[in-house]
Amino acid sequence: MSSSAAAPAPAQRRRPLRGVVFDMDGTLTVPVIDFQAMYCEVLGGDAAYAAARAAGGGTVDILHFVESWEPDLQRRAYEVIARFEREGLDRLQIMPGASELCGFLDGKQIRRGLITRNVKEAVDLFHQRFGMTFVPALSREFRPYKPDPAPLLHICSTWNIPPHEVIMVGDSLKDDVVCGKRAGAFTCLLDETGRYDPHESLPEDVKPDFKVSSLTEVFRVLESHFDLIPAPAESTV
């Protein structure tokens, strides 16, 4: 399925939806971190980065990569990552359509949460700067992090909502979509540039239920495919 696909066939029933969980970097906020430069510095240069990409099938999960290193190397790597992230905070911008989408969800009494591999400092600044709060908002300090389903399952448990009544929205196949699929939630990929076209050619283990090119298109996905049901009272976070 995708946001640009035809309307659901009559036999296809609309599913109940009570919660939406968002990625932050590249989804709720405009991408500002030069990840390639960061990875090259962490790994020791262009050649090491290219080798890591080749070993990872074209991608590098830098956080999991670093976890296998000796403590001194880990400490240096995390310092580099933190520096790039701090520099990104100075340029933090909200993604077009994010405020309107959150207002829509609030009006429908649909829960909204956040899962990011960035640090809590970045999440706190995002909340303060743009005047919107996601609860729960899980940062890198929550382990294990995406693509493990644990953070999404934690949010569902906190909300007292089953995963199949939640949708995960993010811009990463390997982190956001995989996390959502492993948890048993619906998934929506934000692909602004058409990087992952065509949708039908994606492998099944990373194929999202929906693909959009902007957050504005998420409105149509939610209204066309789901019955938006006010969530039950939230349990203690």
Automatic annotation (TrEMBL):
InterPro entries: HAD-like_sf, HAD-SF_hydro_IA, HAD_sf. One of its GO terms (cellular component) is chloroplast. It comes from the Eukaryota. It holds the Pfam family Hydrolase. SUPFAM superfamilies: HAD-like. This is Haloacid dehalogenase-like hydrolase domain-containing protein. The gene is ga03284.
